[in-house]
Amino acid sequence: SNQFLTLNSGHKMPIIGLGTWQASDEEVEAAIDVALEAGYRHIDTAPIYRNEKAIGRVLKRWLDAGKVKREELFIVTKLPPTANRASDVAATIKKSLADLQLDYVDIYLIHTPISVLTNEDGTIKLDSEGIMEPDLTSDITTTWTEMEKVVANGQAKSIGVSNFDQEQLERVLKIAKIRPATNQFEHHVYLQQRDLVDFCKAQGIVVTAYSPLGSKGIAKYNAVVGLVRDLPDLMDIPDVKQIAAAHGKTPAQVLLRWIIDRDIVVIPKSTNPERLKQNLDVFDFKLTAEESAKLSKLDQNFRVCDFSLLRGCERHPEFRFKNQYTK
Ligand code: A2P
């Protein structure tokens, strides 16, 4: 059931990966085990998800037992906003590889175009109100040049970006000796970002869709910072439910298939065994042209991951996430 897209680096990327944000260590260890058993080979993580060590432990068990070969895995991790500056790239990828217990990752992404100031211990510097301070000295193009060295060192097979808009990508492309292989951003029926998708495709940059199912789980994080927002349930949209029923599939499977059909990688997150199996089982049905068009008409420019969790980030000049739902 695993299908692949070929990146501009020549490497193949499984079109479905397992998202791991919003999962605890214990949840993640169990989920990765089930996921590998179910056939997932692509796993998406990041230092800010705080689960690289847990993932590393499971991968080591599988690799040591010979149940999977390293070259069959596709592991994604990211340079966090706390280290998004040229001088921090080398030490940060080294730490991720140590935590993941790997010699290399398949792709290393700049997690956000935003950079934030940190305390001595590398945690985000917050004022008494919990507001972070943007780092105005960092620059995505000098960071990119350091990212290229990660490939030269063999620590990543490919490199890319995440949460970049077209203008930010253009700036990187202008100086890039190695072009970004992917741009990972929020993409689903309610936030389609067609211009950005088209631009990436025209530039040979594979789109990776995060929150492909609408990321309802973000609500509990929003609550922590006192943010109350009504989040839509994409799996409850009547058109989605009706199309799912017509194929004997679930709404989640329809949402994922609609994305994959346009050669976009998806990384649905689940820690539930049934649901994570379900999310990989999307190749035995086909959406009709009418169904696909119906889903394409659902766009609402509704951004779920609007960076509200990083309070103060809107003061950063690279912040581009304002939309009608972002205050
Ligand atoms: P759970 O981990 O309990 O399955 P996204 O990938 O867009 O961030 O969405 C992930 C959210 O959707 C999580 O809350 C996850 O919960 C839930 N989810 C993942 N897969 C499915 C599915 N097949 N059906 C229903 N909910 C799902």
Describe this structure in words.
This protein is an alpha/beta fold. It has one domain: TIM Barrel (Alpha-Beta Barrel). Helices cover 35% and strands 13% of the residues. The protein has 11 helices and 10 strands. An 8-stranded parallel beta sheet has the order 3-4-5-6-7-8-9-10. Helix 1 packs across helix 10 (273-280), helix 2 (52-64) packs across helix 3 and helix 4 (140-152) crosses helix 5. The longest helix is centred in the first third of the chain and has 14 residues, at 25-38. It starts with a strand and ends in a 31-residue tail after the last helix. The model has no long low-confidence stretch (mean pLDDT 93). The structure holds adenosine-2'-5'-diphosphate. Adenosine-2'-5'-diphosphate is lined by residues 19, 211-217, 235, 250, 252, 268-272, 275, 278-279. Adenosine-2'-5'-diphosphate binds next to helix 10.
Keywords:
10 strands; 8-stranded parallel β-sheet; 1,5-anhydro-D-fructose reductase-like; NADP_OxRdtase_dom; two-stranded antiparallel ribbon; binds adenosine-2'-5'-diphosphate; 327 residues; NAD(P)_OxRdtase_dom_sf; oxidoreductase activity
What is the straight-line distance between the termini?
A: 41 Å
- Strands, count: 10
Q: Please mark out the parts with pLDDT under 50 across 5 or more consecutive residues, or reply none.
A: none
Number of domains: 1
Structural class: alpha/beta
Average pLDDT over all residues: 93
CATH superfamily membership: NADP-dependent oxidoreductase domain
Which value, in Å, is the CA radius of gyration?
19 Å
Bound molecules: adenosine-2'-5'-diphosphate
Q: Provide the CATH topology.
A: TIM Barrel
The CATH C-level name is Alpha Beta
Shape-level CATH architecture: Alpha-Beta Barrel
Q: Kindly estimate the percentage of residues that lie in beta strands according to DSSP.
A: 5-15%
In this structure, how is the largest beta sheet organized? Answer: 8 strands, parallel
Question: Looking across the biggest beta sheet, what order are the strands in?
Answer: 3-4-5-6-7-8-9-10
Shape: globular
Quaternary organisation = single chain
The helix/strand series, from N terminus to C terminus, equals EEEHEHEHEHEHEHEHHHEHH
